[in-house]
Amino acid sequence: MTVSYNVLFLCTGNSARSVIAEALMNKEGRGRFRAFSAGSMPTGRVNPYALPVIEALGFEAEDFRSKSWEEFADPGAPQLDFIFTVCDNAAGEVCPIWPGQPMTAHWGVPDPAAVVGSPAEIAAAFGETARLLGNRIRLFMQLPFTSLDRMSLQARLREIGAPSADFAQ
């Protein structure tokens, strides 16, 4: 029997990094992982530069929206197994109480939406964000979930988010 895990990616605005991570996990997770994204202060729209990344993964832009993390703390929300913050601001905020005690880790990456430059330079920053998040997601999906105790798994999740892990790929 294949175990399926629910993963939530958090960022402040839920317009770029967390949305890209959601798309990557759903593409690469192939049913073994079901990803969601949310923000502490959602912008209400997906960043236009994130859309080509999402579409290149085979999704429609309409499949994604910027939403509040409160949706995942409400009754009836999917039971979460893992929560990853992908921006430093969200990592420092007081999060809602998550039902089921999901495992958490910080996987911060630079904000591509903050890049100032030509459209090509901004698009390249979004591509680099997708590369970094993709590396972390692939490392995560290779973990032997069933053979690791909770403390060991938590340590591995934190290692994946360490900046040095980005250069190991």
Poorly predicted runs: none
Global outline: globular
Percent strand? 5-15%
What's the level 1 CATH class? Alpha Beta
* CATH topology annotation: Rossmann fold
The arrangement of helices and strands along the chain is EHEHEHEHH
Widest β-sheet, arrangement of strands? 2-1-3-4
- Per CATH, the superfamily is Response regulator
The number of helices is 5
How many domains, in number, for the residues?
A: 1
| Beta strand count | 4
User: Approximately how much helix is present in the residues?
Assistant: 25-40%
- Radius of gyration, CA atoms, in whole angstroms: 15 Å
CATH architecture: 3-Layer(aba) Sandwich
* Nearest-integer average pLDDT: 89
Can you tell me about this structure?
This protein has a 4-stranded parallel β-sheet with strand order 2-1-3-4. It is globular and about 45 Å long. It has helices spanning 17-29, 50-56, 88-91, 119-141, 150-161; strands at 5-11, 33-39, 82-85, 103-106. It has a single domain (5-164), classed as 3-Layer(aba) Sandwich (Rossmann fold), CATH 3.40.50. Helices cover 35% and strands 13% of the residues. α1 (17-29) crosses α4.
Question: Keywords for this structure?
Answer:
Rossmann fold, globular, 169 residues, 4-stranded parallel β-sheet
Blueprint (SSEs and pairs):
Layout: E1 5-11, H1 17-29, E2 33-39, H2 50-56, E3 82-85, H3 88-91, E4 103-106, H4 119-141, H5 150-161
Parallel strand pairs: 1-2, 1-3, 3-4
